[in-house]
Structure formats: C-alpha cells, structure tokens
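PROTEIN FOLDING TASK:
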Amino acid sequence: MHDHDLDRRTFVQRTGAATGILALAGCLETDDDTDEDEDTGDPSNGDDAVPRFPEVEDPPAAVYRPTHRESMRMLEPITAGEYTLAPMLSYPHPFWLVTGGAGEDDIERVDPEQGRGVHMMFTLWDDETGIVLPVDTSATITISQNGERIGSPHSPWPMISQEMGFHFGDNIPLEDDGTYTVDVELPPIPTHTTGDLEGRFTDSETVTFEFEYDRAFREQVVGGVEYFDESEWGERGALEPMDHGHDDHDDDGHHDHDGDGHHDDDGHHDDDNGHDDDDGHHNDDNGHHDHGHVPYSALPPADAYPGTRLEPTDEADTDLPRSGDAAIFATLLESGSRLADGDDQYLLVSPRTPYNRVPLADMAMQVTVERDGEPVGDADGTRLVQTLDSEYDLHYGASLAALQSGDAITITFESPPQVARHQGYETAFLEMPPLEFTVPEEP
C-alpha cells in the first residue's frame, strides 16, 4: 500500500445492501475461439459470470455506440471527510489504457485475469458542489475476507465511460463466494483547485464497505444486460448517463429527436426531480445537492461560461470544434478574473466528450499566440494547467497578457487524456491535431 505523509482521517461504513441494479454501457468480453459446448460465463452454472459479447468490427476513430448496455449493482454512497464515494459492481470486463501518446503501442487492452470476480467502480464527488473529483493512480483498493487480506492492494485506474462518466476502478479477481470487505484509500486530489474548492481535498481518507459475492449477484448483473440491434453497433453517438429520466437536447438546446438518449456538445441536461443550476450540476428545488443522487460528471454547457468565446479559424461542422472527436470549448476571461494573474486575461479551455460533456482529464496542452504573424509572449508556447474550479469544473487554463481582437491562438495537444476507457471511447481522443482560434472583434 502507498505511504502518505499527510494526516489521515478514517471513516468506516459497512453495508451489504444494494440500492439497486443499474444498466451501464461498458466494455465487451468476447472469445471467438470459445466452443459452443464450453463454459461461456452463463450464470446458471454458478461459476464464471463473464458473458461473451460481439465486438464492433473496425470502430470509427471517434465516440461510438456499443453493442450492449451492461448492468451493475450500486451500493450505498459513503461520506468520508470532504469526499462522498459511491461504489458500484459489475462482472469483470476489459478496458483500455492510454500510456502516453496516441500510437498503437500507447493503447493497451486490459483483460480480466479470470472470470470469477467483479469490475469495481467508484464515483467520487464533493457533496457541497456536486462536482465529480478526479483521482489519480495513487488510490488503493484492499480486499479482505474473514479478516484475511485477499491478494495485493489494487491501484485503480481513472476511467471514463459513456454512462458513468468520469470514475475510477479495476477488475478484482475473487476465488470464493461470500462476504468481502473493501478498504479504499483516497489520496489528496492532485489537481490544482480554485474558487470554493481551493485548499480543499488535501487529506487522505479511507472508506470501508462490504459486499456479497455469490451466484445471485452473478445472475443479477449478467441477466440485466441489455442488447442492442446490430444496426446500431458502432454508430457515431453515445448512450445516455446512468441517471435516467432526463430531457435530452441538441446543440441548440432543443430536444434530441434522434433517440440516442444523450445530450450533445451544448445540450442542456434537465432532471425531472429538479434542475441543473448555472454550473450544470444537479440541485434540488431548494438549490441544495440531492444526497440520494450520484452525480454524473457532465461539464457546464458552453453558454454557461462567461468571457469572450474564441472562434475556430476553420469552420466547424459542429457547434464546438473537434480534435480527435473531443469537443473543445475555449473562452477568454477578462482582466481581473479571479483565475488570472494580476491584470492578465485568463484563457479557459474545456475539452469534453462530444455527447455527454464528460471532462477529459490528464491531458498536456500548450497555447501559442500570434498577432499579424508575429508571436506574442513565449514563442515556444504557454502550458495550460489542469484546474478544478467550483464554478467552471475541470478545465485547463493559463494567464495571458492582454490579447487583442484578431489575435490567432493555437492550442496544441501534446498528449491525449491519460485515462482508461470503457468501450465506445477507446478509439476516440487519441490523435488530436492542433486547433486554431481567433479572438473575435468587440461586439
């Protein structure tokens, strides 16, 4: 287990009760060489519960719809210090890691070690703002049964999926049925924080919970899988977030009549039990976060941000320009912004998935500015810093000396999001060419 120098406050809550089974779009487990008479993970045999699914052949280099929607068991959320954590369990399945660049050697598929076990996932958020918090690989998961530790601690991966948004998790092999105890050590949040989040999440926390792994669980998560018509496999688009019951809108804020069940670049996200506030986060009718609601990591729509929205130099086919199918929003906050240094302006860049507005974390970006063909500021570029803000959520930003109308701004993506992907995202956000913007004329 990792050692941490910071003080740790430990909160323990044990629960074996599940709040429900949810459908979840995820990765596919397939074995083209499996004989029809061999064990294919049918839960009726009480053994390996890893269903076999077809995969999309030659998927696009973009976000696409998978062949099925998985199911999972959601346990009671746990509060620990400043964190709230929701554990979720499904069957083991593959996911994809990004290990640096965008080449084939930088994308690694991770297959389960065995069929018995769970795919364990967690959504972590700040209950005061409803903002989902990014976690790096220094978190640890320790599994025990009857007081005996099972295997070595796991270091879960930061992940994105179409229905869960940003979360972290890993496959956990389990040999025996029974009750298992899970200790999750949460490190301090490494991301630069601003606004009401500044100076928070600096302590480590540990949460503990229990779950039952048995035949009934396997039958439940495997039997709850929803299969889609083959004509939908690999279509450009995404499945809706796991918190259903929302009105879906297109880029212009109108209802989505395509039946995709998602909200596009700038679509607003309304809930029938409340509404989204100006930040795009769920609140109840009194403006307070609903404690029974696990938030989805949807960023605010583009029109919720202040400042001067930068115009893409090349005419885009979508409301927001795309790079590697990531939708890129960029705005220039005026001098005196709380995020800027002194009298500088603040460039805010918000990369997000093109349909559900999931933040794309752990990227490396540079910005260069030219005026009349000559560089302004550092000719080698200015690094954009990943920042978590109470008003603008996850974004990348930098202070820049006062810019002028007509200035050309180039955003270069030096590395794609270093987060694991569930199926439907594994071919997107990899090769990301630079984007050019222009500071518009004063209105």
Observations:
- The chain has a mean pLDDT of 81.
- Residues 215-223 form the longest helix (9 residues).
